[in-house]
Design brief:
4 strands; alpha+beta; two-stranded antiparallel sheet; about 45% helix; binds zinc ion; single chain
Length: about 80
Amino acid sequence: MIQASEFFQVSCPGGHLVRVPVGLADEELVCPQCSEWFVARAAESLEASEDRVERAAQQWLWVAVATALLLVVTGLGAFLAGMLG
Ligand SMILES: [Zn+2]
């Protein structure tokens, strides 16, 4: 998620991390270190990728919780079946 901060960070084609003012998102910029022109896509910024990682981690947490719940329900079912049978 890009917060209300005034800059986001994006890699130039040469791999330099460039701080880009939010106002210049998705504009063509020149890297101050290698003078390479590139489009500073906000969607490819460091902040956006960190957000993706965070969301993926949350999804895994939900999968883990759902799996645990399923195991509990299955175990309870087996326990009840054992009690009855
Ligand atoms: Zn560069």
